[in-house]
Model the fold of this input.
Amino acid sequence: QKEVEQDPGPLSVPEGAIVSLNCTYSNSAFQYFMWYRQYSRKGPELLMYTYSSGNKEDGRFTAQVDKSSKYISLFIRDSQPSDSATYLCAIPTYSGAGSYQLTFGKGTKLSVIP
Amino acid sequence: NAGVTQTPKFQVLKTGQSMTLQCAQDMNHNSMYWYRQDPGMGLRLIYYSASEGTTDKGEVPNGYNVSRLNKREFSLRLESAAPSQTSVYFCASSEVEARTVFSNQPQHFGDGTRLSIL
Done:
Protein backbone atom coordinates (compact mmCIF):
# COMPACT_ATOMS: atom_id res chain seq x y z
CA GLN A 1 0.00 0.00 0.00
CA LYS A 2 1.38 3.39 -0.99
CA GLU A 3 1.73 5.92 1.79
CA VAL A 4 -0.54 8.46 0.10
CA GLU A 5 -3.34 7.57 -2.31
CA GLN A 6 -5.33 10.03 -4.40
CA ASP A 7 -7.92 9.46 -7.13
CA PRO A 8 -6.49 11.14 -10.26
CA GLY A 9 -9.93 11.93 -11.71
CA PRO A 10 -10.41 13.86 -13.91
CA LEU A 11 -13.23 15.73 -12.21
CA SER A 12 -15.48 18.11 -14.14
CA VAL A 13 -18.05 20.32 -12.38
CA PRO A 14 -20.24 23.31 -13.33
CA GLU A 15 -19.34 26.76 -12.06
CA GLY A 16 -20.71 27.36 -8.56
CA ALA A 17 -20.61 23.70 -7.52
CA ILE A 18 -19.08 22.44 -4.30
CA VAL A 19 -16.01 20.35 -5.02
CA SER A 20 -14.67 17.59 -2.77
CA LEU A 21 -11.13 16.30 -3.30
CA ASN A 22 -9.80 13.45 -1.19
CA CYS A 23 -6.73 11.48 -0.21
CA THR A 24 -6.09 8.53 2.06
CA TYR A 25 -2.87 7.78 3.88
CA SER A 26 -1.43 4.72 5.53
CA ASN A 27 0.54 5.84 8.61
CA SER A 28 -1.44 7.03 11.61
CA ALA A 29 1.67 8.88 12.88
CA PHE A 30 1.44 11.52 10.15
CA GLN A 31 0.72 14.94 11.62
CA TYR A 32 0.95 17.57 8.86
CA PHE A 33 -1.22 17.51 5.78
CA MET A 34 -0.88 19.83 2.82
CA TRP A 35 -2.70 20.65 -0.38
CA TYR A 36 -0.86 21.99 -3.39
CA ARG A 37 -2.46 23.45 -6.52
CA GLN A 38 -0.80 23.11 -9.90
CA TYR A 39 -1.93 25.06 -12.93
CA SER A 40 -1.17 23.70 -16.38
CA ARG A 41 2.51 23.97 -17.32
CA LYS A 42 3.38 25.48 -13.92
CA GLY A 43 4.95 24.19 -10.73
CA PRO A 44 2.83 23.26 -7.69
CA GLU A 45 2.13 25.95 -5.11
CA LEU A 46 1.04 25.45 -1.51
CA LEU A 47 -2.66 26.11 -1.10
CA MET A 48 -3.37 25.05 2.49
CA TYR A 49 -2.00 22.95 5.31
CA THR A 50 -3.47 21.46 8.47
CA TYR A 51 -1.95 19.97 11.57
CA SER A 52 -3.45 16.92 13.24
CA SER A 53 -7.24 16.61 13.07
CA GLY A 54 -10.03 19.04 12.32
CA ASN A 55 -10.86 21.70 9.77
CA LYS A 56 -9.12 24.76 8.46
CA GLU A 57 -10.88 27.36 6.35
CA ASP A 58 -9.42 29.94 3.99
CA GLY A 59 -11.95 31.81 1.92
CA ARG A 60 -13.74 29.35 -0.34
CA PHE A 61 -11.37 26.53 0.60
CA THR A 62 -11.67 24.16 3.57
CA ALA A 63 -9.14 21.46 4.44
CA GLN A 64 -10.36 18.64 6.65
CA VAL A 65 -8.48 15.81 8.36
CA ASP A 66 -10.06 12.67 9.80
CA LYS A 67 -7.25 10.84 11.56
CA SER A 68 -9.49 7.99 12.70
CA SER A 69 -10.08 6.95 9.10
CA LYS A 70 -6.78 8.35 7.74
CA TYR A 71 -8.65 10.50 5.26
CA ILE A 72 -8.01 14.09 4.20
CA SER A 73 -10.27 16.30 2.13
CA LEU A 74 -10.21 19.65 0.38
CA PHE A 75 -13.56 21.35 -0.23
CA ILE A 76 -14.02 24.23 -2.66
CA ARG A 77 -17.21 26.24 -2.32
CA ASP A 78 -18.70 28.30 -5.16
CA SER A 79 -16.14 26.87 -7.58
CA GLN A 80 -14.85 29.18 -10.31
CA PRO A 81 -13.26 28.48 -13.72
CA SER A 82 -10.04 29.88 -12.25
CA ASP A 83 -10.03 26.90 -9.83
CA SER A 84 -9.39 24.58 -12.79
CA ALA A 85 -6.07 22.95 -11.94
CA THR A 86 -4.56 19.76 -10.57
CA TYR A 87 -4.76 19.45 -6.78
CA LEU A 88 -2.16 17.38 -4.98
CA CYS A 89 -2.24 16.27 -1.38
CA ALA A 90 1.15 16.06 0.29
CA ILE A 91 2.30 14.60 3.59
CA PRO A 92 5.76 14.78 5.22
CA THR A 93 6.92 11.21 5.67
CA TYR A 94 9.89 9.90 7.59
CA SER A 95 12.60 8.62 5.27
CA GLY A 96 15.11 7.42 7.85
CA ALA A 97 18.27 8.87 9.45
CA GLY A 98 16.32 11.79 10.87
CA SER A 99 15.12 13.00 7.48
CA TYR A 100 11.63 13.87 6.34
CA GLN A 101 10.45 14.01 2.76
CA LEU A 102 7.26 15.30 1.22
CA THR A 103 5.22 12.45 -0.27
CA PHE A 104 2.68 13.59 -2.85
CA GLY A 105 -0.54 12.02 -4.02
CA LYS A 106 -0.84 11.60 -7.77
CA GLY A 107 -3.07 14.67 -8.05
CA THR A 108 -6.70 15.16 -9.10
CA LYS A 109 -7.30 17.21 -12.24
CA LEU A 110 -10.29 19.53 -11.76
CA SER A 111 -12.13 21.39 -14.51
CA VAL A 112 -14.78 23.98 -13.60
CA ILE A 113 -17.05 24.59 -16.57
CA PRO A 114 -18.57 28.12 -16.96
CA ASN B 1 11.32 38.36 -6.75
CA ALA B 2 11.97 35.44 -9.11
CA GLY B 3 11.63 32.59 -6.55
CA VAL B 4 12.87 29.34 -8.12
CA THR B 5 14.25 29.58 -11.66
CA GLN B 6 14.85 26.51 -13.81
CA THR B 7 16.73 26.35 -17.10
CA PRO B 8 16.14 25.26 -19.75
CA LYS B 9 12.33 25.14 -20.01
CA PHE B 10 12.34 22.57 -22.81
CA GLN B 11 14.94 20.13 -24.12
CA VAL B 12 15.06 17.22 -26.54
CA LEU B 13 17.93 14.75 -26.23
CA LYS B 14 19.00 11.62 -28.00
CA THR B 15 19.55 8.41 -26.06
CA GLY B 16 23.02 8.39 -24.53
CA GLN B 17 23.51 12.16 -24.51
CA SER B 18 24.28 13.96 -21.28
CA MET B 19 22.71 17.07 -19.89
CA THR B 20 22.61 19.26 -16.78
CA LEU B 21 19.41 20.90 -15.56
CA GLN B 22 20.00 24.11 -13.67
CA CYS B 23 18.06 25.47 -10.69
CA ALA B 24 18.56 28.66 -8.69
CA GLN B 25 16.55 30.19 -5.83
CA ASP B 26 16.75 33.71 -4.48
CA MET B 27 14.89 33.17 -1.18
CA ASN B 28 17.97 32.21 0.89
CA HIS B 29 16.45 28.78 1.52
CA ASN B 30 18.48 26.00 3.11
CA SER B 31 16.93 22.97 1.43
CA MET B 32 16.54 22.22 -2.27
CA TYR B 33 14.92 19.32 -4.12
CA TRP B 34 14.64 17.72 -7.54
CA TYR B 35 11.43 15.93 -8.53
CA ARG B 36 10.17 14.29 -11.66
CA GLN B 37 6.48 14.27 -12.61
CA ASP B 38 5.08 11.59 -14.88
CA PRO B 39 1.47 10.88 -15.90
CA GLY B 40 -0.11 8.45 -13.46
CA MET B 41 2.91 8.54 -11.15
CA GLY B 42 2.66 11.93 -9.53
CA LEU B 43 5.67 13.81 -8.18
CA ARG B 44 8.60 11.64 -7.13
CA LEU B 45 11.70 12.86 -5.33
CA ILE B 46 14.99 12.24 -7.12
CA TYR B 47 17.55 13.92 -4.84
CA TYR B 48 17.54 16.58 -2.22
CA SER B 49 20.01 18.81 -0.43
CA ALA B 50 19.25 19.58 3.20
CA SER B 51 21.84 22.32 3.32
CA GLU B 52 24.78 23.65 1.37
CA GLY B 53 27.39 20.93 0.98
CA THR B 54 25.07 17.94 1.50
CA THR B 55 23.02 15.82 -0.87
CA ASP B 56 20.90 12.70 -0.36
CA LYS B 57 19.00 10.24 -2.52
CA GLY B 58 15.25 10.34 -2.81
CA GLU B 59 12.83 7.75 -4.14
CA VAL B 60 14.15 7.48 -7.74
CA PRO B 61 17.86 8.46 -7.86
CA ASN B 62 19.15 5.94 -10.41
CA GLY B 63 20.56 7.52 -13.57
CA TYR B 64 20.97 10.96 -11.99
CA ASN B 65 23.61 12.95 -10.16
CA VAL B 66 23.31 16.27 -8.36
CA SER B 67 25.54 19.09 -7.24
CA ARG B 68 24.74 21.73 -4.63
CA LEU B 69 27.02 24.37 -6.08
CA ASN B 70 26.29 26.96 -3.36
CA LYS B 71 23.30 27.94 -1.26
CA ARG B 72 21.43 29.30 -4.30
CA GLU B 73 22.08 26.64 -6.93
CA PHE B 74 21.28 22.94 -7.22
CA SER B 75 21.89 21.14 -10.51
CA LEU B 76 20.68 17.76 -11.79
CA ARG B 77 22.79 15.81 -14.30
CA LEU B 78 21.82 13.00 -16.61
CA GLU B 79 25.06 11.29 -17.62
CA SER B 80 23.61 8.99 -20.29
CA ALA B 81 20.00 9.86 -21.04
CA ALA B 82 17.47 7.05 -21.54
CA PRO B 83 13.91 7.24 -22.92
CA SER B 84 12.60 6.28 -19.44
CA GLN B 85 13.90 9.63 -18.22
CA THR B 86 11.46 11.53 -20.44
CA SER B 87 9.56 13.58 -17.89
CA VAL B 88 8.87 17.01 -16.46
CA TYR B 89 11.50 17.90 -13.88
CA PHE B 90 10.77 20.29 -11.04
CA CYS B 91 13.18 21.96 -8.67
CA ALA B 92 11.93 23.18 -5.30
CA SER B 93 13.31 24.89 -2.23
CA SER B 94 12.24 25.32 1.35
CA GLU B 95 13.45 27.29 4.33
CA VAL B 96 13.30 24.37 6.73
CA GLU B 97 16.18 21.94 6.71
CA ALA B 98 15.00 18.64 5.29
CA ARG B 99 16.40 16.65 8.22
CA THR B 100 14.40 18.42 10.90
CA VAL B 101 10.90 17.49 11.99
CA PHE B 102 8.72 18.94 9.32
CA SER B 103 6.81 22.10 10.01
CA ASN B 104 4.38 24.08 7.92
CA GLN B 105 7.14 25.49 5.76
CA PRO B 106 6.10 25.10 2.14
CA GLN B 107 8.23 23.97 -0.72
CA HIS B 108 8.45 26.56 -3.49
CA PHE B 109 8.58 25.11 -6.98
CA GLY B 110 9.96 26.31 -10.27
CA ASP B 111 7.91 25.98 -13.45
CA GLY B 112 9.69 22.85 -14.62
CA THR B 113 11.90 21.57 -17.41
CA ARG B 114 10.14 19.46 -20.04
CA LEU B 115 12.64 16.86 -21.17
CA SER B 116 12.12 14.44 -24.05
CA ILE B 117 14.61 11.69 -24.82
CA LEU B 118 14.37 10.00 -28.19
